[in-house]
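Researcher: Let's run the pair from yesterday's discussion. Sequence first, then tokens, for each.
Model: Starting with the first of the pair.
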Amino acid sequence: MNISIIAKRYAAALWDVTEPSERASTYSVLCGLLSAVWDHDDAKRLLRNPAVSSDVKIKIIDECLDALAGSDTLKLFFKELVSKGRFEAFDQVVTAFEQKLMAANNSQKATVTTAIPLEESDCVRIRKQLEEKVGSSVDLTQKVDPQILGGMIVEVGGKLLDLSVKTKLNSFQSHLESE
């Protein structure tokens, strides 16, 4: 996902006004609010509707933040985000804030996609190998996609390594067709 410049700026502003010891909990609250908003069609429609006043939107968000134990700083942040008409960038703001948090903790996200679920020991081994390669800790997420047939696809730090059987077969087929 490409993160807009606006989202990066808002995330940087939130990062700057949040105490370092509160950044992880702020991120948790952001994720909770993101889930509360984007997982409920009515809330999403209401908050995206330009006919709904900023005051109503802020009140809804404040109630959600109260339920999630959100800080006054977050309430002020969302008041600014909504009043400036930038709430559409909220999911990207969360992603940009997460990236700043991971960078501060010398950590990266990685995704491994396989045709069948991996054993926990395989995930541990892959995570350790990735940590050695990238030089930081890795938060590994596993996805299962039977269409890749076998092998794996690894994505870390914006780089993609496709070692899937499907890609190898497609490459082999293209090579045969070109001869």
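Model: Moving on to the second of the pair.
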Amino acid sequence: MIAKANEIKRHENVTFLLNKNENLQTTESDTFDFVYSNKTIQHIPYPASKNYIKDFIRILKPRGSALFLVHNCKHFEEESLRFKWAKWRRETLRPFFKKLRGKPPVQIHPISKQHVESYVNQAGGEVIRWETDSSYTKRKKGNLRTWYWTRKSSTS
């Protein structure tokens, strides 16, 4: 995919990266002006998804922006019994029943808006705007896909 992306890119100052770690620690801090992630974070289980969101802010240059898509869900305190139950149901129970029905075990890992904002703030950024993806909400009830536009502070 990276080779194809590099082949069709329109600007030389665009970089595509493949990362197989649960964070972006191999990328230096204050490196990028802009980070974009579309339909990626929702497939990464907790706590790696938390690490990625925090690292999006860390690798931005001061005043840099990140735009990413996340499936939202009800807010439960991290590590609470309800949080652990929802995680187990999503990561263990649902894939089991999908496999029984012969469906691919694609997993969606939603994150509450409160958690997204907390991760961004902890990393030295702010959520400037969030917007629900209206093309998705018409097709499916429940978790909503939400775009987050964030910015790293100028003093981080």
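Researcher: Give me one sentence on the second I can quote.
Model: The chain has one domain: 2-75+108-152.
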